[in-house]
């Protein structure tokens, strides 16, 4: 089953040139955070969008990711009762199976 990641359109377009995506979450890189934040499904992605990206005016994308061969760990953040997938390492652009505009979340 695919996992999802919310991305700024500019970050995703930059990754197309390098072959890998290295943004963890809004304003934080993989190196700063230690992993890339993911969502298990569209409901979870929408909740994250509503909570952390509500004021964003820059175009957002929803990346669908094939987890095969990726170091994805399901973890529950402190203070949460919900489990989220985290990708430990960069996301190869070849693992992204579909890209949707934010308004199609």
- What is the gyration radius calculated from CA atoms? 13 Å
CA-CA gap between termini: 17 Å
- Class by alpha and beta content: alpha+beta
Shape: globular
Oligomer: single chain
**CATH superfamily (homologous) name:** Protein of unknown function DUF952
Model description:
It comes from Nonomuraea mangrovi. The protein is α+β, with helices and mostly antiparallel strands and 105 residues long. It has one domain: ADP-ribosylation fold. The protein has helices at residues 9-18, 30-33, 42-52; strands at residues 3-8, 20-21, 23-25, 28-29, 36-37, 60-65, 72-75, 84-87, 91-92, 96-101. Strand 7 and strand 8 form a beta hairpin. The longest helix has 11 residues, at 42-52. The chain starts with a strand and ends with a strand.
């Amino acid at each position: 089953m695919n996992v999802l990641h919310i991305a700024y359109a500019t970050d995703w377009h930059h990754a197309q040139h390098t072959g890998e995506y290295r943004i963890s979450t809004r304003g934080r890189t993989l190196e700063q955070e230690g992993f890339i934040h993911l969502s298990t499904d569209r409901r979870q992605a929408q909740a994250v969008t509503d909570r952390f990206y509500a004021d964003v005016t820059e175009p957002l994308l929803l990346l669908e990711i094939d987890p095969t061969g990726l170091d994805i760990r399901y973890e529950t953040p402190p203070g949460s009762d919900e489990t989220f997938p985290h990708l430990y390492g960069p996301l190869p652009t070849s693992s992204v199976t579909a890209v949707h505009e934010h308004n199609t979340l």
